[in-house]
Each structure stands twice: as structure tokens, then as C-alpha cells.
């Protein structure tokens, strides 16, 4: 064991590496810090020859002005509904399909799986014009369903869950459950889901974040003025007659905050998810 | 569905009547379960993809063959006229150039930085999960927030953060949105900032899978860290590098939010002279501002083919790399 | 085991079922709960409705009003998609005069306010304002006029003093009868004062000059004449020819524009009445009294001013029409003039001593009522084509190109014409 760990032992980082890393982290955090600084100052600090670099005491004033000038709460609610629903549906539908592809025999399986893999990279947002027409015809324009429906499940999720199920669930376990009289839906619920719980929750988190940050499609079918999502409402603050920097940055800060909190709470899982995705991809 | 059928299918099996009828009912349910349920499991994906993915893309081609107004509907079949017009449209070529230029300026530094960061993370760092999370933070921030914040940092005024930094090193203020190079640079910085850490973690994962013996033998040969990095690390993770290039290409060709927000009011124009209008901005402009669906659909298809072409080129590259190894 | 399994299985489906329910529940847009009616008002900022709305809610129990504010162009672009989709539009929607002709073409999507007693209100408004908001020879009333934007020139007295120019508003008005005079004074100004532009941006100059002409981009048959109407080119060159020297080069209504006002980055801004409020907010209290208002070179004109319309897709057309009528009633317009500077579009008010006598402390107590009101009754509004809104961004960009030094005014104008023709191709 000891021998192995020395074999795996990486280089010991010198102070140079630590300095470089520290600078890097500073660079990645500075824009966020600066957002906070402007958001917490009043607008009078803008236009000085040195930009403000120290937080002020107006954060909550500015927040309440954001709430007054755009419908942030409705947007927040919409974003939550969209992100949560897509996260849940992606987990359910991806693990089901992944289970079928990984463990079940049925005619056309390989062909269908091949189709899934082939669609992973298809940039579906290029079909946006007909998609928009379809959504309007269905009477879903300006509803959260318009945003949710196209992302209920993704090829990436199916493919990822297939891998996870293939690796983590032994065939014997599936067989045993079936001999026990479980139907497939039962096997999925009792064996598959618990077996890939951690990967599935990373998938859920990723879907949640992607849905939360999505902009192009919501801008078209759920634009601000019809409720909007946090992102589309945020984009409103950026220009036009809203000419107040503190307001803009407060909005940006508010839009980022929920995901930052989520990230701080689940950083380890998210990091491992990104790294796992790399190996699988 | 499956549950209901299974529950109701056995016609009231009498428990007292022994195992036989129950077993038969069960078997039938089991057969159904075995044969049909797998399809029920995979069908939602294909329905969603078919309805909201494949169908719109195919239908886009149909729309592109028409004069078609987003609101007023179809206005007549025009064959390939939209494509002909597009191929004679200087705006299209400019958007293509802009897209490729921003793609190059943002992707290559980004991946180089990411390699370097991954190399630093792949050491015995203290508090390693802190460092790993910290580099990923920008990726969690939404593109809209990035666009909003960086557009202010790159505002064309003397007092914007970027110009203040330039003034610290004695350089004059830059009117960032005004020029081709400066606007492309500003937009690329947004992309680089958001994606470098993400790619670094992907490289890190790949680097950890590199057998340590390779490093040891390199060290025994007296190779410096620099040579080890280029002669051992990079070749070993080549497939992963190609993977990130593919992903960045697909994303880069569809760049939309950053230039839109950087453009401010009427952002779909991509600057006063369309100097940073990307293909997707052009698509958005024609589809939803000018409401010219036919033309927008033609742009969609060209973009689609372009991405497919890039994907194939990348695929061939991967093939070659794996065969030379 | 068997039963729990089935029960559990059922529960899984119950959750999936619930997800589906959530979907449909969200699909049908949430209506009004309980007895309360919620009305939404959509505009593009600067209307000053927030206080009025609170009063309305107080005097109309059971009705809640929400204001939704969006950027100018997106606001109108989104309205057309909302109308086409038949969903998503607010109950009361403001449409600016430049965009109104476009929406007049889809009048069927709007409630005819004549069905809600508009005829009785007709006499409230200046005849030309009323005409802008109706179609079918006045039978179809699309919207109630809000404010109008007669023109003046706001100027920064401190910067004028620095340049040795007079600061008294009559003397300032006497400096320029024509735009050439105005630009001439500008050249003197920039020679004396460094670090400030003569005007904020050539975009605003262009818009102001264009609004003094009777016909701009379109003739009365809605044909594009931007390339043949000499007035358009004249206005463009007038605004652009000295922009490199005279302009503060601040993108109109951008955050930089506001910050520039606060910093005193420009000496003058062509300002319709509604812009008073924007300038005042942007400059902040510390600059109170440093600005003043003089006459604009050239003839009178109208820039901006909107109409409140009621899209048919709303659930409460009657209440919405009432709200629109209330928001544009004389008492409210009077208040808005005091609060945000929106000039009333109603002749009775323009003769009202309370309005005529109104001064604005921020603008060195300029008699805004008199300055703006005087020209309003006589003015000839500029004719708008139905696709005015579609080509304006192209001309804005052209003027930005001139300021950025990317193109000569001539070349930039030619490109703008080309782009305008391209934009008008379909539809």
C-alpha cells in the first residue's frame, strides 16, 4: 500500500505553484467580487476615475430596487419550477432508458442505443424557428411548459446513466430481483435507482444548473414581460432605459446567488461529476 | 401503464384455488414485462428527441425553401433562393468570420490555460478540493451574469474596470465594442473566464489516469518537468484534448449570449458595423427581430452543416490519433 | 413484499403523474385567484406610473396592478410575437408613436376602445395626438395618448460658463436659430473646454432633427423614401459631420450615457420633455440647478410620446380599458408632468395655468410648462411609416460608426440605406 502510494505520489508543488494557483483563483473570483462591490454601493461611486473596489452599505436597498423594477420573484419561481422539473424528469427518464440499454435485452437495442449516441452532439437549438412555431400552436407561448418540454430528457443523460448502471449494477442483482418476482419497474425502483444514486444526483444537479442558466430558448418563448426566467429578466437590466450600474450589478448578483449557494454546498459532487463526465465522454 | 395492466390483467385469481392460475397470469404479465417494458423505458427519450429535436431540424429545411414570415406564415415556395441569397450576403460572411475568429481567440488560450492549471492541480496540493472547486466557480455563474458583468467591465468609457487597469500600466483607454479585434478579445475573455476551469478539471481527470510509471521512467531519463509535460502528459491525454476541442467547437460555433449582451441595446446587430455579430446572432436577428423565418432557417441549416462538418473532421482526427498510438 | 412493491411502484407513477400535472398546471397561465383581478401594464420605462398605480389600487378595491418594464426595442418586438402567439401580452401595453403604425396593421389583435367609451373621451387630446392613435377613419380606437415630446435643448450651465458662453436661457436660445449656428457654437465650445463634448451623441441629434421634418423615412403611402428624401440625408449629415469633434460619443440611453450626464461629459442634450426626468435621475441631486433648458434650433417637432393599448388576448378587457383611460385622464397627466416631466397631450392642460406656470428646480427653475407647452399646440408631428421601427436601429448604428471613427458620415449613410432596404424586403 505504502509502496503503491509513493508510486502514485505526484510532484510536490513548490511555492510557485501555490502563488500561480492563488492568482488564478483571484482572477476567477474578481468579477464576482466586483459585482458585489458595485451592487453594495450606490450609484454615485460610478464615473470616478478609480472604479469602486470596496463594498458599501447599500446592498439591500439595491436589492429592493431590483425587486421593484423587474419582476424578480416571478422569474425566480419560474426558474425554480423549470429547473426542478427538468432535473427530476431527466433523472427518471434517463435512468429508465439507461437501465433498459444497459441491462435488458430487446430487439433493436443496439440500433436504438446507436441512435442515442449519435444524437448527443446534435445542436437541437438550430431547429428553433419551427420549435417556436410549434410551441405557439400548442398554446404554450409564455408558459414554463414551453421551456420544460424540450429538455425533459437528453441523450447525454441517457448515455451517462447507461454507463453508470452498466458499471455499478451487477447483472446478478437484476436477475435476483426478477426471480424474486419484481417487475422491471420494481427492479428500476428498488435496485437501479439506489445503485446509481450518487451519479443520478450529480446528473440532477447538472440538469438543474443548465436549466437555471439557460438563456436562448427562454428568451424566445418566455421573455421578460411574460414572467421570464431569472436569466431573461437579468438580461433586461443590462441596457435600455435602466441606466443605473448598481441596479444592474445587484440584479446580476441576485441571479448568481442561488447557484453559488448550491455550488458551495455540493462542490465536491459537482467537481467529481465534471471529472467523471470527462472520463466517460 | 405497466403497473395498471399488470395489476388488472390477472382475471381475479382465486388464491384458494392453488398456484396454477395465478402462475399463468403472472407469466403473461411477466412476458409483457419482459417484452414491452424495455420499450416503454426508452420511448420517452425518443419521443422528446423526435418531437422537440429532430422534427424541428428537418422542418427547418422545409421552411428554408419558402418565403416565410414568422407571424404571417408561409408566403410561397422559393426553392433554394434563401440559400443563394445567403451565399451572396456579405453579412453572412462577416458573421462567419467573426464566429471563427472569436472561436479561435477563445478556444486556444483557454485550452492551454486549462492544461497548465490541470498540471498544477495534478500535484500534492494542500486543500486540493478547495482549489478544484475554486477553479470551477466561474462555470457555475450564468452566461447572462457573465455577459452583464463583463460588458460593464469592458464598457467604452474611461472609468470602466478594464480601461482603469490599462491606465495603471500607462496605456490609453480602449473603445472595446468599436473595433473588430477589441470586441472579439472582450467576448473571448468572457468565454475563457467561464470555461477554463471546467476544461482544467476534465484534463485533470485524464491526467490522473496516466500511469505514474511513465513519469518515473521519464524522471530516470533525467527529463525536466517541462519535457515530461510535453512528452508524457500531453500525448497520454490526447483523446481528452480532442474531446474538449470538439465540445468547444460545437459551443463556439453557436456563441450567442456573450455577444448579444455585449452589444447592449439592439444586441442582435453585433455592434455598429456588425463587427462582433456571430452566426447565431444573425440567426436570431432574422428569426425573431426581422421575423424572416425562411432566411433564418437557411442560416440554421448552413450552421448545422458547418457543425456536422467540424464534427466529422474532429472524428477523423481522433481516428488518426488512436491509430498512430 | 408484494403489496409494498405494488404500492411503491404506484407511488413512483404517482410522482411522475404529479410532474405531468405540474406541467399542465403551468401550461394554463395562472388566472386571477379569488375575487381579485390583477392587471398588468407593460411599458419601456420612464412612465412614472408606480405612484399612480398605488393610488389606483386604493381607489379600486379588488384590482391589483403590476407594471412591467422592458427595454425600448425589445418591448415592441416582444409585443408583436406576443400578439402573434395570442399569449403573454400585458393587459395594458404602451406603444410608442414610432411603433404605432406597425401595430395599426394588426388592429384586430387590440380591443377597439371605441367600444369602451373612447368617443366620449376624444376631446381630451390634441387632435393630432388623437389621430395617431386611431385607424379606419377614427372608427377603431387603438390607444389613448399618454404624453407628447415637444422639443427643447437642455444645457449644462457650468460648462457654458467655463466656455465663456452666456448661461441665461433667452440668451442661449438666441445663440442658434439654425442647426449650423448650433454646431458653430459647439466648435467654439470644444476649443475652450477640454474633456467634454458639445452634445451627448449624434444619435439624439439626428432623431431631434428628423422630428422637425414632416416626412422622414416613409411617405404617406408607406413607401420607403429614406434614400430619396433629401431631409433624411441632410439630418444625418448635420448630426454626423462634426461628431468626431463635438460629440461626447455616449451611446444613447446606455449606462455610460447616464454616467456621462452625472460627470458633466456634455454641454447640451436635445431633450423632449420626457427626457427631463431621465436627465434629472441620471445627474443626481448634487447637480441640481446646474442644468437649464433653451430653445431648440430649427422648427418645433415631436419626439416620442406613447399610447396605451389593450390587447384582445387579456382576460379583463373592460377593466384594462378603464385603467388605460384613467392613466391618461387629465388629473393623472398633470401629475406625471410634475413628477417625471411627461408633457400632457391634452389642450386643456396645456392652457392650464398650473402647467404653464410649472418650473423645474433641477433645471434652474426653468419654466418647463411654458417652454414645452408653447410649441406643443402648434406642432406638426413627423409622419411615421408602419416599418419605421424596423429600420431605426440601422440608422442608429450608422451614427455610432461615425462616432467611432469607422466611417465617414457619407459612407455610413449609404450603408444605412442599404441595410434599411434589406430589412424591408419581407413582410
Automatic annotation (TrEMBL), chain A:
It is found in: Cell membrane. Keywords: Cell membrane, Membrane, Transmembrane, Transmembrane helix, Transport. CDD domains: TM_PBP2. GO terms for biological process: transmembrane transport. The keyword Membrane applies. It is a multi-pass membrane protein. InterPro entries: MetI-like, MetI-like_sf. Gene3D superfamilies: MetI-like (1.10.3720.10). GO terms for cellular component: plasma membrane. Residues 76-266 form the ABC transmembrane type-1 domain. The chain crosses the membrane at residues 16-34, 80-102, 111-133, 139-160, 187-212, 245-267. Belongs to the binding-protein-dependent transport system permease family. This is Sugar ABC transporter permease. It comes from Wenjunlia tyrosinilytica.
Automatic annotation (TrEMBL), chain B:
It is a multi-pass membrane protein. CDD domains: TM_PBP2 (cd06261). Its main location: membrane. Residues 96-314 form the ABC transmembrane type-1 domain. Keywords: Cell membrane, Membrane, Transmembrane, Transmembrane helix, Transport. It holds the Pfam family BPD_transp_1. InterPro entries: ABC_transporter_permease (IPR051393), MetI-like (IPR000515), MetI-like_sf (IPR035906). It comes from the Bacteria. GO terms for biological process: transmembrane transport. It is found in: Cell membrane. Belongs to the binding-protein-dependent transport system permease family. This is Sugar ABC transporter permease. It comes from Wenjunlia tyrosinilytica. The gene is cebF.
Automatic annotation (TrEMBL), chain C:
Keywords: Signal. The keyword Signal applies. Residues 1-25 form the signal peptide. The keyword Signal applies. Pfam families: SBP_bac_8 (PF13416). InterPro entries: Bact_solute-bd_prot1, SBP. This is ABC transporter substrate-binding protein. It comes from Wenjunlia tyrosinilytica. The gene is cebE.
Amino acid at each position: 500500500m505504502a509502496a503503491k502510494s509513493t508510486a502514485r505520489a505526484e510532484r510536490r508543488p513548490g511555492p510557485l505553484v501555490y502563488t500561480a494557483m492563488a492568482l488564478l483563483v483571484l482572477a476567477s473570483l474578481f468579477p464576482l467580487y466586483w459585482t458585489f462591490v458595485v451592487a453594495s454601493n450606490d450609484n454615485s461611486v460610478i464615473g470616478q476615475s478609480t472604479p469602486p473596489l470596496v463594498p458599501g452599505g447599500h446592498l439591500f436597498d439595491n436589492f429592493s430596487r431590483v425587486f421593484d423594477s423587474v419582476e424578480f420573484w416571478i422569474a425566480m419561481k419560474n426558474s425554480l419550477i423549470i429547473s426542478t422539473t427538468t432535473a427530476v424528469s431527466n433523472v427518471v427518464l434517463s435512468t429508465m432508458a439507461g437501465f433498459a440499454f444497459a441491462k435488458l435485452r430487446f430487439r433493436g437495442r443496439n440500433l436504438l442505443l446507436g441512435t442515442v449516441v449519435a444524437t448527443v452532439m446534435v445542436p437541437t437549438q438550430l431547429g428553433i424557428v419551427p420549435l417556436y412555431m410549434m410551441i405557439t400552436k400548442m398554446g404554450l407561448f409564455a408558459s414554463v411548459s414551453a421551456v420544460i418540454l424540450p429538455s425533459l430528457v437528453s441523450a447525454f443523460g441517457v448515455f451517462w446513466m447507461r454507463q453508470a448502471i452498466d458499471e455499478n449494477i451487477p447483472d446478478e442483482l437484476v436477475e435476483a430481483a426478477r426471480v424474486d418476482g419484481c417487475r422491471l419497474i420494481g427492479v428500476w425502483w428498488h435496485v437501479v435507482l439506489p445503485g446509481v444514486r450518487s451519479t443520478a444526483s450529480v446528473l440532477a444537479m447538472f440538469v438543474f444548473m443548465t436549466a437555471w442558466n439557460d438563456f436562448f430558448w427562454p428568451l424566445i418563448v418566455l421573455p421578460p414581460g411574460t414572467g421570464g426566467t431569472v436569466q431573461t429578466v437579468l438580461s433586461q437590466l443590462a441596457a435600455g432605459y435602466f441606466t443605473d450600474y448598481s441596479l444592474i450589478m445587484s440584479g446580476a448578483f441576485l441571479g448568481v446567488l442561488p447557484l453559488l449557494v448550491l455550488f458551495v454546498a455540493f462542490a465536491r459532487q459537482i467537481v467529481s461529476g465534471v471529472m467523471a463526465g470527462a472520463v466517460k465522454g | 401503464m405497466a403497473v395498471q395492466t399488470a395489476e388488472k390483467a390477472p382475471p381475479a385469481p382465486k388464491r384458494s384455488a392453488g398456484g396454477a392460475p395465478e402462475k399463468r397470469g403472472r407469466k403473461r404479465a411477466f412476458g409483457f414485462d419482459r417484452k414491452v417494458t424495455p420499450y416503454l423505458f426508452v420511448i420517452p427519450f425518443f419521443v422528446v428527441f423526435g418531437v422537440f429535436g429532430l422534427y424541428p431540424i428537418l422542418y427547418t429545411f422545409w421552411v428554408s425553401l419558402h418565403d416565410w414570415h414568422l407571424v404571417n406564415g408561409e408566403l410561397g415556395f422559393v426553392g433554394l433562393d434563401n440559400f443563394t441569397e445567403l451565399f451572396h450576403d456579405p453579412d453572412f460572411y462577416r458573421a462567419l468570420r467573426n464566429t471563427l475568429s472569436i472561436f479561435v481567440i477563445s478556444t486556444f488560450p483557454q485550452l492551454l490555460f486549462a492544461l497548465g492549471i490541470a498540471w498544477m492541480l495534478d500535484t500534492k496540493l494542500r486543500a486540493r478540493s478547495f482549489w478544484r472547486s475554486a477553479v470551477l466557480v466561474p462555470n457555475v455563474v450564468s452566461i447572462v451574469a457573465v455577459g452583464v458583468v463583463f460588458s460593464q467591465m469592458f464598457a467604452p468609457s474611461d472609468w470602466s474596470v478594464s480601461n482603469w487597469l490599462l491606465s495603471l500600466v500607462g496605456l490609453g483607454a480602449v473603445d472595446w465594442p468599436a473595433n473588430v479585434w477589441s470586441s472579439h478579445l472582450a467576448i473571448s475573455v468572457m468565454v475563457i473566464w467561464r470555461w477554463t476551469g471546467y476544461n482544467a478539471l476534465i484534463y485533470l481527470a485524464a491526467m490522473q489516469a496516466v500511469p505514474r510509471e511513465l513519469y518515473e521512467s521519464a524522471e530516470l531519463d533525467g527529463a525536466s518537468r517541462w519535457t515530461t509535460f510535453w512528452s508524457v502528459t500531453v500525448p497520454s491525454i490526447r483523446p481528452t484534448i480532442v474531446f474538449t476541442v470538439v465540445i468547444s467547437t460545437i459551443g463556439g460555433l453557436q456563441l450567442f449570449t456573450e455577444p448579444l449582451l455585449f452589444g447592449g441595446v439592439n444586441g442582435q446587430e453585433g455592434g455598429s458595423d456588425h463587427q462582433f455579430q456571430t452566426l447565431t446572432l444573425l440567426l436570431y436577428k432574422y428569426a425573431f427581430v426581422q421575423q424572416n423565418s425562411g432566411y433564418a432557417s437557411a442560416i440554421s441549416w448552413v450552421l448545422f452543416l458547418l457543425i456536422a462538418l467540424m464534427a466529422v473532421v474532429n472524428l477523423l482526427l481522433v481516428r488518426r490519433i488512436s491509430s498512430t498510438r | 413484499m408484494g403489496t409494498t412493491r405494488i404500492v411503491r411502484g404506484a407511488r413512483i407513477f404517482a410522482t411522475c403523474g404529479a410532474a405531468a400535472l405540474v406541467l399542465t398546471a403551468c401550461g394554463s397561465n395562472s388566472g386571477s385567484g379569488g375575487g381579485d383581478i390583477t392587471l398588468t401594464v407593460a411599458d419601456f420605462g420612464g412612465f412614472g406610473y408606480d405612484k399612480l398605480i398605488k393610488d389606483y389600487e386604493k381607489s379600486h378595491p379588488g384590482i391589483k396592478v403590476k407594471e412591467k418594464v422592458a427595454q425600448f426595442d425589445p418591448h415592441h418586438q416582444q409585443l408583436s410575437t406576443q400578439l402573434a402567439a395570442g399569449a403573454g401580452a400585458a393587459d395594458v401595453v404602451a406603444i410608442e408613436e414610432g411603433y404605432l403604425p406597425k401595430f395599426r396593421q394588426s388592429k384586430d389583435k387590440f380591443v377597439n376602445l371605441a367600444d369602451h367609451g373612447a368617443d366620449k373621451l376624444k376631446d381630451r387630446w390634441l387632435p393630432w395626438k388623437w389621430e395617431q392613435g386611431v385607424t379606419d377613419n377614427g372608427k377603431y380606437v387603438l390607444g389613448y395618448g399618454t404624453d407628447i415630446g415637444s422639443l427643447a435643448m437642455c444645457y449644462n450651465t457650468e460648462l457654458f460658463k467655463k466656455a465663456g458662453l452666456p448661461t441665461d436661457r433667452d440668451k442661449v436660445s438666441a445663440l442658434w436659430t439654425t442647426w449650423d449656428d448650433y454646431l458653430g457654437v459647439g466648435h467654439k465650445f470644444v476649443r475652450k473646454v477640454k474633456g467634454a463634448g458639445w452634445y451627448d451623441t449624434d444619435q439624439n441629434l439626428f432623431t431631434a432633427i428628423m422630428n422637425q421634418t414632416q416626412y422622414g423615412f416613409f411617405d404617406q403611402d408607406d413607401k420607403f423614401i429614406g434614400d430619396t428624401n433629401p431631409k433624411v440625408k441632410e439630418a444625418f449629415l448635420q448630426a454626423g459631420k462634426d461628431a468626431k469633434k463635438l460629440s461626447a460619443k455616449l451611446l444613447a440611453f446606455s449606462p455610460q450615457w447616464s454616467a456621462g450626464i452625472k460627470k458633466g461629459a456634455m454641454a447640451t442634450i436635445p431633450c423632449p420633455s420626457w427626457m427631463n426626468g431621465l436627465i434629472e435621475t441620471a445627474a443626481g441631486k448634487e447637480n441640481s440647478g446646474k442644468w437649464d433648458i433653451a430653445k431648440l434650433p430649427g422648427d418645433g417637432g415631436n419626439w416620442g410620446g406613447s399610447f396605451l393599448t389593450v390587447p384582445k388576448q387579456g382576460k379583463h378587457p373592460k377593466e384594462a380599458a378603464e385603467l388605460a383611460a384613467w392613466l391618461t385622464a387629465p388629473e393623472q397627466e398633470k401629475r406625471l408632468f410634475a413628477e417625471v416631466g411627461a408633457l400632457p397631450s391634452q389642450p386643456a392642460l396645456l392652457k392650464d395655468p398650473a402647467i404653464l406656470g410649472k418650473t423645474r428646480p433641477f433645471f434652474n427653475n426653468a419654466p418647463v410648462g411654458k417652454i414645452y407647452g408653447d410649441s406643443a399646440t402648434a406642432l406638426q408631428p413627423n409622419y411615421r411609416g408602419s416599418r419605421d421601427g424596423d429600420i431605426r436601429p440601422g440608422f442608429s448604428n450608422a451614427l455610432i460608426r461615425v462616432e467611432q471613427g469607422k466611417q465617414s458620415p457619407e459612407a455610413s449613410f449609404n450603408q444605412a440605406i442599404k441595410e434599411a432596404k434589406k430589412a424591408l424586403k419581407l413582410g
